Amino acid sequence: MQKRFNQLTKQLLHGRFAIEREMLRVTHDGTLAVTKHPTALGDKATHPYITTDFSESQIELITPTFPTVEAAHDFLQTLYDITALNIGDERLWPQSMPCALPDGGVIPLADFGSSGLEAGRYREHLLQKYGAKKQLISGIHFNFSFADELIASLYEGSPERYDRFKNDLYLKLVRNYLRTRWLVVYLLGGTPAVHTSYEERCVSQMQALSEDVYSNTTALSYRNSDCGYTNVEPLYPDYSTLSDYTASVRRFIAQGDIANPNELYSPIRLKTSRGGNDLERLETNGIDYIEIRNIDLNPFEKTGIALSDLKFLHVFLLYLTLKDETRFADWQAEAFHNQQRVAKEGLSPTLTLMRDGEAVALQTYARDLLDEIEAFNKHHDLEFDAIFASVRDRIDHVAATYASRLTSAMMTDGYTKWSLRQAEMFYQDAYANRFRMHGYTDMELSTQILMKAALKRGYAVEVIDRDDQFIRIRHGNQTEYIKQATKTSKDNYVSVLMMENKTVTKHVLAEHGIRVPGGIELRSEADLEDAWTMFANEPIVLKPKSTNFGIGIHIFKDGTTFEEALEAFRHALTFDDVVLLETFLPGKEYRFLVIGDEVAGILHRVPANVTGDGVSTIRELVAKKNEDPLRGKGYKTPLEKIDIDDIVVAFLRPQGKTPDSVLADGELVFLRENSNISTGGDSIDYTDRITDSYKRIAVESARAIGATICGVDMMIPSLEREGDYGIIELNFNPAIHIHSFPYEGKERPIGETVLDLLFD
């Protein structure tokens, strides 16, 4: 028995979760944007994640299903960031209730072209029946399904057929949710007021709280009231069995109450994964998940819903599933009555509701429920403890509810002004996170960039091996496997090996008439001693034969002593059995990123450096520079933190400085010779400042070695003097984040370019 209980506890936490979020696009002054759905967001008719709802101005974000609410919430946040950054000067309205409508009340219906004629006719029906203003109301839909293991565990010993048991389990959850849905409206309600341009029938019943804020002063969720997204008259489907449910919905359609099942605006829907809300498919396939639909957008959250509230919904649904049902016959009408009371009077501290036919104070009813949910959580050791403090605070103090906080904010700043400020704040957050994919920030940044670019296009992305940065991207009938963003099916193994071997690279490039530095291979200290007479007092470079990211490289552009060269050789030898001794090529180093037959980006990489302020030491200046949020560790941010290591100490020594030296105000000091971003360098975009002749050389270099994606490191003494250059290295698996988000200059959509190559 104990073993089964422990298994049940573990299985209760398993499930499948998805989120849908609707929102309006608005102009800079807070009126509805009547522009077409942005082309940068792809085809709304086929995009699985970003589409439109009722209006062309109403964007809908749809996450795939995930095994945790955290993963679904992270994905929703990523979709928000992508959307916010691809709608030009428009912003995403943070509230469920509509913004100010444009002059003349023009509200463009979603246009899916010839392929969406039926969808267009349905929207016309909704427009005529409910009015466009109601149809612009937005919200959160939370999709939930039980884990198969949980259903199987609960089914054990049941005499029923499994499919009937599964359907009945979901139906019990639905009935219990409908009975207590008012609690979700109270806790998550965020529509306590409307704009003056909203429906006159509703606005005329309210009073002005400020210039453009109308309410009845106690409303908590107009969206869930008769002024919101509800049927003309309340409809009560029969949830006794699945066949009873479908029969009752068909009866509503036959009576003309609704046109199809989608028009049944219930706070919760039964869904099948193979046909959604279609009644015949629901009967054939059974209930696969439920969709909760009475959640207002939380305008204090960028995603529209707090993660802690999603976790509360999870434990609440589990509690309702195992909770015994009451026998009160008129429960549907009572539940509807409670919802309406809470929606319009939820901010009243003296509000009473009905519980199985008896009046009870809202706070008393809510505390009783929360006590039971907390006991359920503790009994099954579900570890949801941290979420209850916030929920209890909202129950005990009406002023702590989202609706009350929102009312206070809008009374002070106005409906439109406050909402626009929130929209701008969320946009800025999206911009600050433009290089991140939420939930995957432990992965290399280049991989995150490629994944986000794929999601923007609506491609399916799957992480195969997280530690190895191995992903799979699917689009249509094509599947591509990619490692570390640029290791793809387009490059062959020999080309990779050639680029890895710097001696082979130089040999092949030279054969193709491309300039490379002269040099020799060293395997022992004796080799260095024998060759030193040729390189003494000459500008030289010592580097491992087969490494990347600037590791083990020592540059002596003014020449050096044999002793220093020997020390550099010994260090380079720790990374490879062979060290290259090469002539140093003068000029600035530029990284050309070649993808296919074009240069997708060019960077000048400045070695790690600091600028003095007259009081701080080099060590302190490095620490300050490392505080930049763009700097991190392990290629997960656009720039890398600067480390003060033995190489930095050695590089400072000839300058007469140590890490504890204080720099004069404005004094610039470089900390390394090599300019790799991986060692703390700065990246400056030069793509539009370098002539096509050098770009052709970079493409020819990649082509000579058979590389499709390649980083070409080129030394150019002067951009004003064409033809003077030298290729010092070709790099397989070049980082794309340094071009996508340079320290200075234009950001390049390299993820998109890689996808163009893979899915041409």
Automatic annotation (TrEMBL):
Family: In the N-terminal section; belongs to the glutamate--cysteine ligase type 1 family. Type 2 subfamily.
Enzyme class label: ligase
Keywords carried by this UniProt record: ATP-binding, Glutathione biosynthesis, Ligase, Magnesium, Manganese, Metal-binding, Multifunctional enzyme, Nucleotide-binding
Pathway: Sulfur metabolism; glutathione biosynthesis; glutathione from L-cysteine and L-glutamate: step 2/2; Sulfur metabolism; glutathione biosynthesis; glutathione from L-cysteine and L-glutamate: step 1/2
Function recorded in the entry: Synthesizes glutathione from L-glutamate and L-cysteine via gamma-L-glutamyl-L-cysteine.
Chain segments carrying region Glutamate--cysteine ligase: 1-343
Names of required cofactors: Mn(2+); Mg(2+)
Annotated ATP-grasp domain residues: 506-759
Entry superkingdom: Bacteria
Lineage: Bacteria, Bacillati, Bacillota, Bacilli, Bacillales
NCBIfam families for this protein: glu_cys_lig_rel (TIGR01435), PRK02471.1 (NF002688)
Protein source organism: Exiguobacterium mexicanum
This protein's name: Glutathione biosynthesis bifunctional protein GshAB
GO MF annotation: an example: glutathione synthase activity
Reactions it catalyzes: gamma-L-glutamyl-L-cysteine + glycine + ATP = glutathione + ADP + phosphate + H(+); L-cysteine + L-glutamate + ATP = gamma-L-glutamyl-L-cysteine + ADP + phosphate + H(+)
Summary of subunit composition and partner proteins: Monomer.
Protein's UniProt keywords contain Metal-binding: yes
